[in-house]
Design goal:
Elements: H1 2-10, E1 27-31, E2 34-35, E3 43-50, E4 53-64, H2 67-70, E5 82-89, E6 104-106, H3 111-122, H4 138-166, H5 171-183, H6 189-198, H7 201-206, H8 211-221, H9 235-239, H10 242-258, H11 279-291, H12 297-302, H13 306-313, E7 324-326, E8 329-330, H14 340-362, H15 365-377, H16 384-391, H17 399-413, H18 422-429
Parallel strand pairs: 4-5, 5-6
Antiparallel strand pairs: 1-3, 2-3, 3-4, 7-8
């Protein structure tokens, strides 16, 4: 309930009756103040007129006035500048650390706001605010979608920045780790990111002119060159597979040379996965990309069009994997290029966020603008989240739109965080 009180105060959703303090003085809220997400009073620099006198200071909000003592505010000087204590129920007078009474006001959340909030939290249909979507203005939808698109890019930027920080400030490594993570296409994302931190780019770089040695390092560091990593039904064939033996021997030599330690092969997932997404295939594609020097940050930053990005990221497997999905298991010949769908996902989740992140880091607005432009040029992703919102009446045209809606679902709807959502705001204030 306290969250809803915060929301009602912040958006001035007042009840129909006049606002008064507990001792009967009239209250006029000029400015609810700046919402504080950290320690200290809930709203800073609020302006309230009490019986004609203007007060400027902080506002604290609680379900019950007695929570003031429960939280120790009576002993905390940070709360001495509270000019108004707003409560759902004023069950007790309160004092600050100077022993002075704090002015209090009971705030009744309007009945329709309470009912709308209850509906949002309990709705079975998803998303819970679906009924309000068709009535929203284009301006409201556009403004919120633009904010969500930026929020999603900033969220990915923070992840890339943290990778650079872990890599001793190397944005080159951060790009490679981001690329590797997205080669997991969701299911193996965590495993690929762990692999990318263990693959040792300095070691790989010394053998960058030899694709076979690169593939040995990439597959070996993934733990996939041990016989235990081969599915049991293919182990006998793998034991007689010359390429498996050659790669294994090469990795043993390179791991000794560079003191490499492979990851646990059990971290890779294969269940209910299409063979073209098996780690062996993706690692071979990454080895080719790295060998051809197309997994470089500097090269990415030079790309200005979607065609240039597609050309940069397009790759294929080495000859052995054209007829295999795992060691010891043969398949029909297939060059196993990245599909247009996969390329678009890599552009959306790797290339564009990296452009934006580097732009922020280097304070180059042109790179940030290019990231937004590329998102608007790409067609919207086709997944169940986008389909869900389309069914609610939203127009989804570009990848910027679909990224905004993915952010909306994962960061707001899934958490039932309707009080921070613009659509939720429109739903809450609507009278029914």
């Amino acid at each position: 309930m306290e969250q809803l009180l915060h929301y009602t105060w912040k958006h001035k959703m007042w009840p129909l009756h006049p606002l008064t303090t507990t001792d009967g003085r009239d209250v006029e809220v000029i400015d609810p103040g700046l919402h504080n997400q950290h320690q200290g009073p809930d709203f800073f620099n609020a302006k309230v007129r009490i019986n004609g006198t203007l007060w400027v200071g902080n506002v604290e909000i609680h379900d019950r006035a007695s929570d003031w003592y429960l939280h120790g505010h009576d002993k905390d000087k940070a709360y001495d500048n509270v000019v108004l204590h707003v409560c759902g129920v004023c069950d007790k007078d309160v004092l600050n650390s100077n022993g002075q009474y704090v002015t209090q006001m009971q705030l009744d959340v309007p009945a329709h706001v309470q009912e709308n909030y209850r509906q949002l939290l309990q709705a079975d249909k998803y998303p819970p605010c679906y009924t309000i979507i068709p009535s929203l203005s284009r301006l409201t939808v556009h403004a919120w979608m633009a904010a969500l698109e930026t929020e999603r890019l900033e969220q990915k930027t923070e992840a890339i920045r943290q990778r650079a920080e872990r890599a001793n400030g190397s944005w080159e490594d951060a790009f490679f780790q981001t690329l590797a993570r997205n080669y997991g296409f969701g299911v193996n994302g965590d495993a690929f990111e762990l692999w990318s931190r263990q693959v040792s780019l300095p070691a790989a770089g010394k053998h960058r002119d030899d694709l076979f040695q690169l593939e040995a390092i990439f597959l070996g560091q993934a733990g996939l060159l041990s016989l235990e990593a081969v599915p049991e039904r293919y182990r006998e064939q793998a034991q007689q597979d010359p390429y498996f033996a050659k790669l294994s021997n090469e990795y043993r030599y390179l791991s000794h040379k560079f003191s490499l330690e492979s990851m646990d092969y059990k971290l890779w997932k294969f269940m209910r996965m299409r063979p073209q997404n098996f780690p062996h295939i993706r690692l071979s594609q990454l080895a080719n990309l790295y060998y051809e020097r197309r997994a470089n940050l500097s090269t990415l930053l030079e790309c200005e069009t979607l065609d240039q990005l597609r050309s940069l990221l397009a790759t294929h497997v080495t000859p052995y994997w054209e007829t295999h999905y795992t060691f010891g298991s043969e398949s029909l010949p297939n060059s196993k290029h990245l599909s247009p769908f996969s390329l678009n996902l890599l552009i959306i989740n790797t290339a564009i966020p990296t452009l934006f992140a580097v732009g922020r880091h280097r304070q180059k607005e042109a790179l940030c603008d290019r990231a937004f432009d590329l998102l608007e040029q790409l067609k919207a992703e086709n997944n169940y989240i986008v389909t869900m919102w389309k069914e609610c009446g939203l127009e989804v045209k570009t990848a910027g739109d679909s990224q905004a809606l993915i952010q909306l679902k994962t960061r707001y709807c899934d958490r039932r965080d309707c009080l921070r959502c613009r659509f939720g705001y429109e739903y809450l204030r609507a009278a029914r």
